[in-house]
């Protein structure tokens, strides 16, 4: 019996007087789509990214409709939210790049499965120009490289514009749209860029608005020991304060959705949420907060 990589896994559930056997027809957990081979620490599960897109209304899983609004993840990490959004927008089936446990069972008919996959692929909209504009950026250029390679494996590289840059300095990539992010927080990973340098007492360069999503817009971050893919040592609170200030100044008209375990995050950011959706990021209880950005918007001091 192969105990590490069996062709078929069988699970037994024991009670005081019964034993129930289950055959695993999935194989690896279903959140693994098959394209994410490059990742940092604490990556967001693809299924949670899809749930965030559905909860925001950008994607309606019942009808399959996708909002025409541009989508931007300023803390994209290995690209999970952007890639999941692009596959949804292009009508690509989830898990199209992976193998399933049932493929090794005797009733499996390879030609029938191949025909089903071909049918779903033909139904997908392969023209990236027909999908909403999707953008992703991260302070760690290493993670941006990971995201780009993952997008290529997922077949959506042409549908996403990935760039390196600090979330506290990036100008809006479009006139308006939806910000969707799973930012670094205490139990996951450390913030980098302006917030980290500011916490260490280093001078912070303020962004200049020159429009668009240009490479010259933000200087490359200085070499640093900390980054999105490394362990958290501070609470990252300064990052959220500065992020809120940046949004108020430059992202008027955008709707921001942020996943965080900090229920007091809106108060810390001095923003009033218009909606909060309970979610779990692995073992961490979180809220998906919605912020409707208005120029100079901030909740009054209390």
List the SSEs and their pairings.
Elements: E1 10-14, E2 19-23, H1 46-56, E3 71-73, H2 80-89, H3 110-123, E4 134-138, H4 141-154, E5 160-164, E6 178-181, H5 193-199, H6 237-250, E7 255-260, H7 265-269, E8 275-281, E9 284-292
Parallel strand pairs: 3-4, 3-6, 4-5, 6-7
Antiparallel strand pairs: 1-2, 7-9, 8-9
Helix pairs in contact: 1-2
Describe this structure in words.
- The protein has helices at 46-56, 80-89, 110-123, 141-154, 193-199, 237-250, 265-269; strands spanning 10-14, 19-23, 71-73, 134-138, 160-164, 178-181, 255-260, 275-281, 284-292.
- It has 302 residues and is α/β, with parallel strands linked by helices.
- It has two domains: 1-30 and 95-124, no CATH class; 35-90 and 126-292, Rossmann fold.
- The strands form two sheets. A seven-stranded mixed beta sheet has the order 5-4-3-6-7-9-8, covered by helices on one side. Strands 1-2 form a two-stranded antiparallel ribbon.
- α1 packs across α2.
- It is globular and about 60 Å long.
- The chain starts with 9 loop residues before the first strand and ends in a 10-residue tail after the last strand.
Name of the top-level CATH class of the largest domain: Alpha Beta
- Low-pLDDT regions: 187-191, 202-212, 214-235
Which fold does the CATH topology of the largest domain refer to? Rossmann fold
Secondary structure: number of strands? 9
Calculate the mean pLDDT score and round it.
81
- Beta content comes to 15-25%
Per the principal axes of the C-alpha atoms, what is the gross shape? globular
- How do the SSEs run, as a string of H and E? EEHEHHEHEEHHEHEE
Distance between the termini: 66 Å
Q: Please give the order of strands in the largest beta sheet.
A: 5-4-3-6-7-9-8
The CATH architecture designation of the largest domain is 3-Layer(aba) Sandwich
Structural class, from helix and strand content?
A: alpha/beta
Number of helices: 7
Whole-number total of structural domains? 2
Looking at CATH, the homologous superfamily of the largest domain is Vaccinia Virus protein VP39
Provide the gyration radius in Å.
21 Å
Give the fraction of residues assigned to helices: 10-25%
């Amino acid at each position: 019996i192969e105990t590490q990589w069996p062709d078929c896994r069988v699970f037994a559930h024991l009670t005081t007087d019964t034993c129930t056997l289950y055959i695993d027809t999935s194989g690896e957990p279903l959140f693994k789509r098959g394209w994410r081979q490059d990742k940092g620490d604490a990556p967001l599960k693809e299924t949670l990214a899809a749930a965030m897109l559905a909860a925001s209304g950008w994607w309606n899983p019942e009808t399959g409709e996708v909002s025409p609004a541009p989508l931007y993840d300023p803390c994209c990490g290995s690209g999970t939210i952007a890639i999941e959004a692009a596959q949804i927008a292009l009508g690509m089936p989830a898990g199209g790049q992976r193998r399933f446990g049932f493929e090794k069972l005797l009733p499996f008919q390879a030609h029938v499965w191949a025909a089903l996959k071909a049918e779903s692929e033909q139904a997908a909209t392969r023209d990236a120009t027909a999908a909403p504009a999707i953008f992703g950026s991260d302070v760690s250029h290493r993670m941006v490289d990971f995201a780009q390679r993952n997008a290529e494996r997922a077949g959506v590289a042409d549908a996403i514009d990935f760039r390196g840059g600090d979330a506290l300095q990036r100008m809006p990539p479009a006139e308006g749209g939806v910000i969707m992010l799973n930012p670094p927080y205490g139990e996951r990973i450390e913030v980098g860029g302006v917030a980290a340098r500011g916490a260490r007492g280093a001078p912070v360069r303020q962004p200049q608005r020159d429009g668009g999503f240009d490479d010259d817009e933000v200087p490359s971050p200085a070499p640093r020991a900390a980054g999105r893919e490394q362990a958290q040592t501070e609470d990252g609170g300064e990052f959220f304060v500065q992020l809120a200030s940046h949004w108020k100044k430059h992202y008027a008209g955008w709707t921001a959705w942020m996943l965080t375990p900090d229920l007091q995050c809106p108060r810390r950011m001095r923003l009033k949420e218009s909606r909060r959706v309970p979610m779990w990021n692995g073992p961490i209880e979180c809220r998906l907060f919605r912020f409707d950005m208005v120029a100079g918007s901030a909740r009054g001091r209390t």
